[in-house]
Design brief:
By secondary structure, the chain is α/β, with parallel strands linked by helices. The protein has one domain. The chain has 6 helices and 6 strands; from the N terminus they run αβααβααβββαβ. It has a 4-stranded mixed beta sheet with strand order 3-2-1-4.
Length: 141
């Protein structure tokens, strides 16, 4: 099997399909710099990162795409997840449909393997009891 580059992967993700991202981890290493900036209160660094994502969301929504994300979180929220809540507002304002789902409401079978901790989901039908309405019985076209 031939591996694809980060650029090729990004092109595939943004190739016009519906986008639903399911996140199961309590933190992600690739956000370490942003997390450190948040902990220091470095608003300039946070703003640069958040504004880039907000602009991408706004562009995709303007083009007619839905960007949906579900973050499955432990309770109480980890410090990383508190940061995620703190910085998510501008992307939501730009049109990202973001939901937070307590881990206790997710089937344990979905959370058993270390490899299934984050993935974009395309053309999927999924049900999570007790979650927000678009997630309860959501089927992507």
């Amino acid at each position: 099997m031939e591996l694809i580059s980060v650029e090729q992967r990004t092109a595939l993700i943004w190739a016009g399909r519906p986008f639903l991202k399911l996140e199961l981890r309590d933190s992600y290493a690739f956000d370490a710099g942003l997390f450190d900036a948040w902990r220091r209160g470095d608003r300039e660094t946070i703003s640069r990162s958040v504004d880039t994502w907000r602009d991408k969301v706004a562009s995709e929504v303007a083009a007619g795409r839905r960007l949906r994300r579900v973050r499955v979180v432990s309770e109480p929220l980890s410090e990383y997840q508190r940061m995620a809540v703190d910085i998510s507002g501008s992307a939501v304002d730009a049109g990202e449909e973001l939901r937070w789902l307590p881990r206790r409401l997710v089937s344990t079978s979905a959370d058993q393997t270390g490899s299934a901790l984050r993935w974009p989901t395309y053309k999927a039908a999924m049900t999570c009891r007790g979650a927000s309405p678009w997630w309860e019985a959501s089927t992507l076209p």
